[in-house]
Amino acid sequence: MIAKLGRSSNLYGALAYNNTKVEKEKAKILFTNKIIETSSGKYSVSQLAQSFESYLAANRNTEKHTLHISLNPDPKDNVSDESFMMLAQDYMQEMGYGEQPFVVFKHMDIDRSHIHIVSVCVDEDGKKISDRFERRRSMEVCRALEKKYGLSSAIEKNHSSNQVVFNPINHQVGNLKNQIASVIRHLPKYYRFRTFGEYNALLSLFNITAEKVEGELGGKMQKGLLYFALNTEGEIVGHPFKASLFGKNLGLVPLESYFEKCKESLKNDESKFTLINFVSTAMKSTTNEKDFKTQLKNNGVNTVVRRNKSGLMYGITFIDHNSKTVWNGSSLGKMFSSNFFNEKWNNTMENVDVNARASDSQKKEKAVVDIQKVLHLEKPYHLFKFLDADQTNGQNEEGLFSAIAGLFSFTSGEDYQEQEFANQMKKRRKRKR
Predict the structure, then answer these.
(1) For every residue of 122-141, which 3-state class applies, written as one string?
(2) For a Cys-Cys bond, which of 163, 304, 337, 396 suits 201, CB 3.0-4.6 Å?
């Protein structure tokens, strides 16, 4: 069980936050302690606040007098209302707040049921209750309550595996900030990507998207980065999170610096030619998008396709989990751009050969020759077994990547600028003329 303690000077706000969920039937008041009862058993925020007024009036010097605590058992623990009530009473008693007025709310708006407790840290004589070593004491109380009520141990779970890392986020279970953090803090350590688009393609596998923002502050233009959670349809859900919330190394400037490092390291990287081999083979042996993705998936490669609202493709990105690199289609060669795939799949062309796409122009001939060289390289390339333990740096990294197996065949629903696709089509028409 995990306990989160918050302190503020806004008692009314804490009560209103929880009571609004009660009014929407997404929560309920489980029980109260030293709270003035009402004839109906229902409460308004003002009625709840009355029970705390005398305590706050006795001490006007304590600025952060309001306690807002949440107790979160493991989602696998089936905790009854009666057990939640006893948990709350025992926790408040052990933390020194057992004689205080408090309200216990059970939240049911997400799959993980949990409780919130609102109270004050000033007793009826106006004395501030000590918060010395409070967080350490809270952890000790949680461990004791886990044993008493047979709950899963949060400590054992954290030490047993790293399964939180690299799991696709689930907006329905809450705690979006921590879910997003568990992904974006680790991706640059293991994957290489050279552009913002490639980074977003990788993020889409984990139901996350990022957006650049610009604005004027103090007469100067400022740039920033926002992260959003996505649902399974690729639609943005919830409010955005500023990159600064996750650490100074995850802002736009450090990210762009990382892009440049990856551009340099991937200039002559063998992973590019191995990926071209995979993609070319899949292009020759399949005639539709589904089969194409499936064949690449079997080789440990994700295909992320971006489409506009009318269904036209304007971007395709390949994520090679073998080499942990991300490649926009056009960066592999003109024959792997979204324009080609858009025409191939929309027209349901059968048995398209890469060579057949070449025109008489020298540039296109050269592109085909380059691809042929890649496909007939004398140096054998080892096709790594997807997520094999030999490709990881120790047991911890193997645990990090074990969760990726269920991510394949995900198609992003991100809506990038459609103008890019339109511009590419204009250039294509000019070349035809």
Answers:
(1) ECCCCCECCCCCHHHHHHHH
(2) 304
Name the CA dihedral angle for 41, 42, 47, 50, rounded to a multiple of 10 degrees.
Answer: 40
- Planar angle of CA 370, 374, 375, nearest 5 degrees: 115
User: How would you label 113-128 residue by residue, b for 16+ Cβ within 10 Å and e otherwise?
Assistant: bbbbbbbbbbbeeeee
CA distance linking residue 165 with residue 300, whole number of Å: 19
Burial of 307 (0-12, 13-18, 19+ CB in 10 A): buried
381-407 pLDDT, tens digit per residue, is 222 223 333 333 333 443 334 334 333
Structural domains of the chain in order of their starting residue, each with its CATH number: 2-158 (3.30.930.30), 171-265 (no CATH), 270-432 (no CATH)
- Taking only the tens place, the pLDDT of each residue in 296-348 is 998 889 999 988 888 888 899 999 988 899 999 999 988 898 888 888 887 64
**Angle, CA of 67, 71 and 76, to the nearest 5°:** 170
Look up residue 392 and give its DSSP letter.
Answer: S
In order, the DSSP letters of 331-374 are: HH-GGGSHHHHHHHHHTT--S--GGGG--SSHHHHHHHHHHHHH
Residue 338: its pLDDT value, please?
87
Collapsing DSSP to helix, strand or coil, 120 comes out as strand
